[in-house]
Amino acid sequence: MVSNHRPTKVIVDLEAIQANLHAQKAQLAEHQEIFAVVKANAYGHGAVPVAYAAKEAGATGFCVATIDEGVELRQAGLTEETILVLGVIPSYEAVYAAQYDLSVATGQIEFLHEAQELLAREAQKLKVHLALDTGMGRIGVSQADELQALVTFLEHSPEQFDFEGVFTHFAQADATDTSYYQKQVSKFNELVTQINPQPKYVHSANSATAQWHRDNPSNVVRMGISLYGLNPSGHELQPTTALKPALSLVSELAFVKKVPRGTALGYGSTYVSPSEEWIGTIPIGYADGWLRRMQGFEILIAGQKCPIVGRVCMDQLMVRLPGKLAVGSPVTLIGRDGDLEITAQDVADYAQTISYEVLCNLTDRLPRVYRGN
Length: 373
Fold this sequence. Notes:
Blueprint: E1 9-13, H1 14-25, E2 33-37, H2 39-43, H3 47-57, E3 61-64, H4 67-75, E4 82-88, H5 94-99, E5 103-106, H6 109-122, E6 126-131, H7 144-155, E7 161-167, H8 179-192, E8 201-203, H9 207-212, E9 220-223, E10 247-252, E11 255-259, E12 264-265, E13 271-272, E14 277-282, E15 298-301, E16 304-309, E17 317-321, E18 330-337, E19 340-342, H10 344-351, H11 355-361, E20 368-371
Parallel strand pairs: 1-20, 2-3, 2-9, 3-4, 4-5, 5-6, 6-7, 7-8
Antiparallel strand pairs: 1-10, 10-18, 11-14, 12-13, 14-17, 15-16, 15-18, 16-17, 18-19
Protein name: Alanine racemase
Keywords: Isomerase, Pyridoxal phosphate
Family: Belongs to the alanine racemase family.
């Protein structure tokens, strides 16, 4: 359930998303196009509004993780663009995926055998992208004979399958050491050259590849985290395009009180005030995706840095204030307040994780408010 009747919300700048896509598009070769990766509710930004903004900015397709994410886009009116489901699906869902004109990833001959029978029975045709495991270890085939078996099966089943693409995913395209990336490129090229003729889409470029390996011949860039204005490598490499963070997380002070020296705060009494202090309470907690481990992190309140004190609760957290502040004072947990800014990467650094996880953790309880476009 979305909690619209409290001040805590996610603000998404759709113009920033479009600016990020335009910046990436300006670096592409003529034969390359962009698929906007909008899986996981567009990394917490909201799949449908982001997809429409990306389409307007020049994206020609979308990548999702599940069938349901693809169906959501189709039902929202995005009926012409390629929608690629990057996760493998069970064969019994093949007909449903075909009915919504979804492209699906596979790397198993068993899937093709089982899906063919079901598709033939319902007179449906499924678009397929063959997944090649060149070193990521998740899905796909890694041997030439396995790949040839898949290609041959697809060639002999034109009424049930449209062999639309072949792809891989790089594990270390965002690293300063490019040796493993180059190893995967070589493996991908070795396998792809076995396919003749090649399908419409031959793709391997994720956000990191597009940023730091522009010579990659992938005819599709699957633009993920950089679409949302964040650096795929964290701090290891500097981005080659201007990135504008699109998401802010904001709230307000809900309660303010002065506590005497020696006051224990929160579960486990992990914070005890060393002196008389002003304490504020903010209506956000780990049920919203603001992790319990964020105790001690400084957020912005009325343009000032304020540390989280005590453990983050399920629905609320406490902060030490510089003085008495009014209930309703603006709070920024991610975003900009005056000259100060907190990025999702800052949150990730403190939580010892990556910005992707910070964004995807933001739950549906938080309303999404859209600006621009």
